[in-house]
Amino acid sequence: MARRGTSPDGTKAERRKAQRFPVTVPIEVSWRGSDGIAIKEQAIARQVNANGGQLEMSSYPDVGNRITLTNFLSAETAEARVLATPHSREGVSHGIVVELIISSESFWGVNLQVKKASVELQKLEDSLRSEGIDLRVFE
pTM of the predicted model, to two decimals? Predict the structure, then answer.
């Protein structure tokens, strides 16, 4: 089983390039099996960012496989690579983790820029409150 990197203090090292956001997006995943036969499987994207995401599905390609993702809502397609499956990494269950070959802010059908800005604003608000700053001064 593949092991995740750890920090010097022994905690798991975060290797994600960007924060993931929760979504529910129906996806079709297609790939070629080891015998060369085309396979299609329905999936639901659950956590995504511009670089990839986590897809829930019942059967899945092997780690390292190149796959084609089709977003059922937009009919947009994207190529991706499988980074993890339940058999390859602890903490991955009922699906796969994928990395988009070409990053996309729009593939998943949600505006990730707005979500990122919202998260950053929430962090700023929390930080200001923890310093005892009255947020009404900004109104």
Answer: 0.69
